[in-house]
Design goal:
By secondary structure, this protein is of the alpha+beta class. It has two domains: about 5-225, Rossmann fold (3-Layer(aba) Sandwich), CATH 3.40.50; about 240-355, OB fold (Dihydrolipoamide Acetyltransferase, E2P) (Beta Barrel), CATH 2.40.50. Helix content is about 25%, strand content about 35%. Helix 2 (about 95-105) runs parallel beside helix 4 (about 140-150). The two termini are about 45 Å apart. The relative contact order is 0.12. Bound molecules: adenosine-5'-diphosphate and magnesium ion (MG).
Length: about 350
């Protein structure tokens, strides 16, 4: 197993007056699968290019296994890179494409062939060695790009939206393949995507980026169930966000008031500090909204959407000042059909209501 740790210290990149990456610090452990997630333009590729040595930072440091590589050329960093456009050489066979980085490193022809064959086994395409890239599908070409990267056993692999060009089914399959290869090789991987589901499926930790800075760093569960900002709650899947006021704080628990007509209720914090009197947003994920049991509020059903395994109910609360809510539960055959306009009781467990600062964190 070849793998290195990566440390980034106050790394910063500007293009003229524009800050593409504000001073950013981040540690990636040996063998970790870390994903940079964020909307287009949030600085993911910028950060990845700096790590790869394809761009140069204005400030800060990059350390690989404690060695400062901030000013080392790309080829000295023991890093492999896979991009969305796989950029295979069209006039070379698959075998020669994969052996190319080894030839560059002066590995003997026999050894290069042996390792190319091994890499082809790893990506489960042992039979395509003699073909040309044009004779392979997009998904197969992406596997070859991956084989060409792992063939020289880099200690860190960087991937920038590698599955972006593939259709959904193939993408799902390749996600599992990349996870399997990660398990087999144990290499440290920094993966970039703008797709939150992909990030949730694949990562040990997610680094959510927004406007050139880290918005939140943590496990998929941390970000999904304990978002530190409304941006995080919104970016990672559907959420109900209700305005509330904090009435009291005890440890991780909060007393909150959602609307004047409603009794006080409880929420949990997200790891940051809250003050009495502070306006907050309370997040309840759709699957945690319980429909049809003596809940905190009632509402009218405005829409039902069945998307395969999930049924979504859109509900307009009868209490003034609350937004439309969405509840989701597994689709079951044979359950009584819903009627638009029907009155439903709605509730949630206090542990599933998470308070988030409404503005900047204090
Ligand atoms: N070479 C460049 N010159 C000027 N601006 C750039 C350059 N590269 C990136 N940017 C800007 O930096 C911001 C972040 O870009 P990027 O890191 O590519 O975002 P992402 O990969 O998250 O979509 C964008 O607003 C982009 O326009
Ligand atoms: Mg990008």
């Amino acid at each position: 197993m070849v793998s290195s740790s990566l440390r980034i210290r106050e790394l910063c990149k500007r293009y003229g007056d524009f800050v593409a990456l504000a001073p950013t610090s981040l540690d990636v452990a040996k063998g970790e699968f870390l994903t940079l997630l964020g909307p287009s333009g949030s600085g993911k590729t910028t950060l990845l290019s700096l790590i790869a040595g394809l761009a140069h930072p204005d400030e800060g440091q990059i350390l690989i296994d404690d060695a400062d590589v901030t000013h080392s050329p790309a080829y000295d960093r023991d890093i492999g890179v896979v991009f969305q456009n796989y950029a295979l050489f069209p006039h070379m066979t698959i075998e020669d494409n994969i052996a190319f980085p080894l030839k560059m490193r002066k590995v003997s022809d026999t050894e290069a062939r042996r390792r190319a064959a091994e890499a082809l086994e790893t990506v489960r395409l042992p039979h395509v060695a003699k073909r040309y890239p044009r004779e392979l599908s997009g998904g197969q070409q992406q596997r070859i790009a991956l084989a060409r990267c792992i063939v020289y056993r880099p200690a860190i692999i960087l991937m920038d939206e590698p599955l972006g060009a593939l259709d959904k089914k193939l993408r799902d399959q390749m996600q599992l393949e990349i996870k399997r290869i990660h398990r087999e090789l144990g290499t440290t991987i920094v993966y970039v995507t703008h797709d939150q589901e992909e990030a949730m499926t694949m990562s040990d930790r997610i680094c959510l980026m927004n406007a050139g800075a880290i918005e939140q760093l943590g496990t998929p569960q941390d970000l999904y169930f304990r978002p530190r900002s409304v941006f995080v709650a919104d970016f990672l899947g559907e959420s109900n966000l209700l305005s509330a006021t904090v009435r009291g704080v005890d440890g991780e628990g909060l007393d909150i008031v959602l609307a004047e007509q409603l009794a006080a209720s409880r929420a949990v914090g997200n790891g940051s500090r809250f003050a009495t009197g502070e306006p907050v947003k309370v997040m309840v994920r759709p699957q945690n909204l319980v429909v049809g049991e003596g809940g905190q509020l009632s509402g009218r059903l405005t829409d039902v959407m069945i998307s395969g395994s999930l049924t979504r109910l859109y509900i307009a609360p009868e209490t003034a000042g609350l937004p439309q809510l969405v509840a989701a539960h597994p689709t079951r055959s044979g359950s009584a059909p819903y009627e638009i306009g029907q009155r439903l009781s709605l509730g949630w467990h206090a542990a599933d209501a998470v308070a988030i600062h409404d503005g900047k964190e204090i």
